[in-house]
Amino acid sequence: MLRTSMHRARLASFTSWARLTPLAALLALALPVQAQTVIGGQVFTVQEMVGVGRLAANLRDTHGETFGSISGLWADLASWQRVGNTYTGTFLAAPDRGYNIAGTIDYAPRLNTLQMSFTPAAPGASGLAQNQIALTLTDSTRLYETLAGGGTQFLTGLDPVPGGVATGGARPATATLPELPQAFNGRLALDAEGVVVLADGSRLVSDEYGPSIYRFAADGRFLGALAVAPSVRPIRNGVTDYSSNNPTVGQPAPTPANPSAGRANNQGFEGLTVSPDGRTLFVGLQSAARQDLNPASGTTAAATRDHTRVFTYDISNPADIRLTGEYVVKLPKFVQNGATLVAAQSELLALSSTQLLMLPRDSNGREVGTQTSLLRAVEIVDLSGATNILGASFEAQIAPGGVLNPAIVPAAKSLLLDINDRNQLNRFGLTNGQQAGFENLSEKWEGLALLPALDPSRPDDYFLFIANDNDFATTDGFHAGAAYNDGKNLDTMFLAYRVTISAVPEPGSALLMALGGAVLLGAARRRQAAETAGSRT
Questions:
Q1: pLDDT value of position 233
Q2: Of 90, 95, 406, 515, whose CB has the highest number of CB atoms within 10 Å?
Q3: What is the DSSP string of 473-495?
Q4: What tens digit of pLDDT does each residue of 295-352 get?
Q5: 36 pairs with which residues across the strands?
Q6: Among positive and negative, which fits the CA dihedral 151, 154, 158, 161?
């Protein structure tokens, strides 16, 4: 469990040196750190990258199918332990809907169990191999439902049928279930993007199609689904239509291709996380809902998809989970080939009941797009001062024409970590873009986990793990009874960073630290001046 000071952290709007208080600036000068952010009574310090690990692109799971990589990641804190300088633990990983370059397939969604052994690299070391993180796939649990007439059937990664309930593309809501997307074969459709485990052992899995939040038993049995705000349900032709415009061979595509409101195609619930106290569930839309874009901008409408939504649920009673909040989070923008684009969020990780880490990224990487990523980062998000728009008069449309309603205060944010930092990547033989002698990172990074360093001398230190989604890309693949060749091999990869998250000292001790830092800094400058003067004589 994270330290109590971190549970109580309250984020403010500080985002750079220029916005730090004079005291915080002095504190930062006094501490020889790589990257530091002071926010809401907390000091976030990125020490350095300390590990890399990978699983082969052609790895098969326990069902003989190609391993699904990391679209969602959950760390089992109870399993995390340290012996000497080696850590071991267990992760649960959610792959998405299966290999789908030429339309979606009848891939059974599943949750994979990974065992990790991790020995961090020595501080400041370089020329490192990519072997500090050893990963082993130990189990794959396919997700299924029991049928009213007896028997079971797996869920599916197939795109829902266009048209919603009337065409069989959705199951109507019942007294205990919300409306849920359905494929042409009658199976519940699930494009999994996040996973968490609740106190009762059940699993929640977030879905892009609905967007939905499904609930499963530990053995994969479907238990139910959570209610979802109408503001993100996709609307076509006046009805909820869950098709993402990725039909399988022989199935119809939706008309029009894009919804008029609700989540955009393939931009559903991408991030799912639970607060450390186990009471609050967070789920985030990957980018803005369709009604919050500027349609008048035509092909550049995507540049206005930056006002996404994050929802909160009270899960203190797993038998009575309630939707409690809806907040606006502004996604970062970047310029590529002269066009302004928005980096979609790919994962959320809760630090407290109001504070999150978020992973925004572009769509570039090894053998994809420009190959050089322009934005791939971890940001700190604070909801404590943001407007809860759930039930508000403007909930349905928060950004008419792509411009945020001035009555809404979005979440505060700050950059924590630049994943594209070549100095750190190069130490492990990795890079961003094409660089001789180094391997380029893949496009999609969609997993986050934070675990304590268990270091008595540094009790506020943690390891931040970031994992990729390789989209099942291998030249030796097998899914749904058929072999496939993607033409490239992208391994599943984990990166590890050592970070420090601690409370800002009380005013008295902070002042002493600042004054001490100023004294040390002054002494160092005087010594350097004396040495310079001596060298001139």
A1: 98
A2: 95
A3: --SSEEETTEEE--SS---EEEE
A4: 876 666 788 999 999 999 999 999 999 999 999 999 999 999 999 999 999 999 999 9
A5: 45
A6: positive
| 341 sits in which H/E element | strand 339-342
Q: Which two tokens stand for residue 178?
A: 């919300």
Tokens of 110: 């599943």
CB half-sphere exposure, 84, CA atoms < 13 A:
5
The yes-or-no verdict on residue 82 having pLDDT over 90 is yes
Q: Kindly list the distances between the CA atom of residue 115 and the CA atoms of 52, 79, 134, 138, 140, in Å, as whole numbers in the listed order.
A: 15, 10, 8, 7, 12
Give me the residue spans of the domains in the chain: 4-504
The residue with tokens 């059974």 is: 108
Give the closest residue to 53 by CA, choosing from 493, 513, 470.
493
Query: How many Å apart are CA 517 and CA 525, to the nearest integer?
Result: 12
pTM: predicted TM-score of the whole model, two decimal places: 0.89
Spell out where 233-305 has E strands: 235-236, 239-240, 269-274, 280-285
pLDDT at 302: 81
- How many Cα atoms are found within 13 Å in the side-chain-facing hemisphere of 138? 11
- pLDDT tens across 112-162, in order? 999 999 999 999 999 999 999 999 999 999 999 999 989 999 999 999 999
Give the per-residue pLDDT at 34.
Answer: 60
